[in-house]
Amino acid sequence: MIITIEGIDGAGKNTLVTAIREQVEADVLSFPRYDDSLHAQLAADALHGRMGDLTDSAYAMATLFALDRHGAKEQVERYVDSDEILLLDRYVASNAAYSAARLNDDAVMDWVHDLEFGRLGLPRPDLQVLLDTPPETASQRARMRAERDSARERDRYERDAGLQQRTYDAYLRLAEQGWAGRWLVTADAGVILQEITSRRSTTL
């Protein structure tokens, strides 16, 4: 079972993943994979102003993040049709939401879908969870996190409050249309655990 936890910066994705793992046995993979992926590292350099005008292209940045996920394709595929649980801290929907927010055009959502699930062949998730944390609250958390930890300096996307709001709105549209599968919009670990239990019982 592949479950993705989606949300803007500071929404509480790591906290939710931790809460779920306290109740069920699950593996976790976070994207971008800054420690392991050259594509993710290049994207990080760009977001911190070290790659010239690379960030000016939403499509270029989306491609780097997509190639980062493609590098973990075999790792993710192991959980397809499995009774094991993989929690993904961000996945393909993050690319669709951020790209749509940057371009102010939802047409890029289809492009991301075709690129990652089509050409790159990434597995579709069984469940996508959008944390419904208000953007103002998430932004405050991200600022406080950066103040406490110098290694967590906010990048270009995180510093742009308008982008974060538009991304949240884009996530909501993805959830409403059932983009790439089933969605839950909640920050309640109990609701997610109930869904996991329900899905397990129907596959036994």
TrEMBL record:
PANTHER family listed in its UniProt record: THYMIDYLATE KINASE (PTHR10344), UMP-CMP KINASE 2, MITOCHONDRIAL (PTHR10344:SF4)
Biased composition regions of type Basic and acidic residues, renumbered to the chain: 144-159
Domain Thymidylate kinase-like stretches: 5-179
EC identifiers of the protein: 2.7.4.9
Tagged with keyword Transcription regulation: no
Protein name: Thymidylate kinase
GO molecular function: dTMP kinase activity
Similarity field: Belongs to the thymidylate kinase family.
Record's keyword terms, sorted: ATP-binding, Kinase, Nucleotide biosynthesis, Nucleotide-binding, Transferase
UniProt entry tagged with the keyword Nucleotide-binding: yes
Region named Disordered: 136-159
Protein purpose: Phosphorylation of dTMP to form dTDP in both de novo and salvage pathways of dTTP synthesis.
Gene3D superfamilies, per database record: P-loop containing nucleotide triphosphate hydrolases
Catalytic activity, reaction form: dTMP + ATP = dTDP + ADP
